[in-house]
Amino acid sequence: MLARPQLPILSVATVALFLGSGLGLVYPQAVRWMVDDITAVESSFMDFDKAAILLVVLFLIQSVFTVLRSWLFTVAGERIVAHLRGDLFDSIIGQDVSFFDTSRTGELTNRLASDTTVLQNTVSVNVSMGLRFTIGAIGAVIMLLYMSPQLTGLAMLVVPVVALAAAVYGRIIRRLSKEVHDALATSTEIAEESFSGLRTVRAFAREDVEVQRYRDAVHTSYVLAARRALANGAFAGVAGFSGYTAIALVVWYGGHMVTAGTMTIGELTAFLIYTMMLAVSLGALSGLYGDFMRAAGASARVFELIDQPAVLEASGGEKLDHIAGRIRLENVSFTYPSRPDIPVLTGVDLSIDPGQVVALVGPSGSGKSTVAALLARFYDPQEGAITIDGYDLRTLDPKHLRQHIGVVAQEPVLFATSIRENIAYGSPSASIEEIRAAARAANAENFIDEFPDGFDTTVGERGIRLSGGQKQRIAIARALLKDPRILVLDEATSALDSESEHLVQEALDRLMAGRTTLVIAHRLSTVRDATTVAVLDEGRVVES
Predict the structure, then answer these.
(1) Which pTM value belongs to this model?
(2) What is the pLDDT of the chain when averaged over all its residues?
(3) Which of 515, 300, 265 is CA-nearest to residue 404?
(4) Which pLDDT score, from 0 to 100, does residue 453 have?
(5) DSSP state letters, 288-303
(6) CB atoms within 10 A of CB 39
(7) CA 40 to CA 274: how far, in whole Å?
(8) Mean pLDDT computed over 346-371
């Protein structure tokens, strides 16, 4: 299926492959003519010269087809893998939030990078070489049978040995390759965790521990790779021994045939060249077989992700022309898929009318942030229903729904791009004037203008170059520009100092005006203007 769009290129490449490989089967016959001409009683240098010129012409034409074949197969392979990477990323990004609760970022990154790189080598250069050597081997066998069925039968005695070794080798190498890639994914996970949490690593002086964790994971992958290398070497040894044994048998028996006068020296020479071509082709195929088995292990991991359906589809369902913002939670019970034995919400009832501000308070772990996650439909409740304007969220298009919900979290996530791009993340078509107006309303315009690059200032990974208050105001500007009908504030000021909190609270007050707002907070300053305060404890609304 992935190769179908590349069929025109692959067709031309295949024709070039057949023509180039076919010409390669001609030159042993030219050598036979030359040798027989030299050893003939009445030899003609003119015939000898013609045969030599013919060889050079054949090699030149074959080289042209080789360039064409190699170039086209490589281009087609690169396109296939580029498309595969896009499909894999599309599948991963389309998974529901519960998938990321149980998957590690390092492993997913490894599949996008390492596994697809293995496939890239296989579907580009290796496919071309595999077809080339397969055609060469088949052609050599046909020519051998044509020239001497007796000698060919003798040479083919080693084939069952190679076939048996290949069957055993294929099973071993496929299993080991999958284990190697799994071990490499683990090391990537450790590296990703250590880099992203570097400040914590430094604060606890745990650099040596993280280095040792990484070294242990790399050592595990090394041990598995060493076993795979041993299997490669053993198979290469068996294939090489079989090939050289076949050549020795041909030289031994063919010599007797030349002595008996049933075969000329030129014919034996051509037969030996075909035998060596067959041996070289089989040897190359044995190496490629290992690469294909490694690719099979990698592809199993890649297509496992591509074929994995999302529990909650990112789109599909009814789209409301207008959202007033009336929210109802009716007897909602929920447990996280990653922790199915621990109930988080039990029989929760909550009502928010359009334009109201409802605050959720309670101890950590009481389920406040879970209510916000359910409202954005990151998950579906196991029992009960959540409705907006009377429509069950499960009947609405999730993407369309989320376009009308703005979220400002305690630790906002910014991308390693410019401030302008981060503010416009939910409204990519916004003009710079609209972006600036949103920043002004979020009390962010002044500090942004103080940067040398202004709105084009890059914020670093996860906004590391900005302070907590600055990141929070950028997130508020992003929500303001999106202009959502429903707003979720998840402890948006809890991590700020008093000065930053004042500026952020001013921006939040502007953001909340006229919108249905769910506020999750610990501080009284955050909930003082709430219409209703609901107290959650152990997943239940205990007071309102």
Answers:
(1) 0.67
(2) 79
(3) 515
(4) 87
(5) HHHHHHHHHHHHHHHH
(6) 12
(7) 22
(8) 84
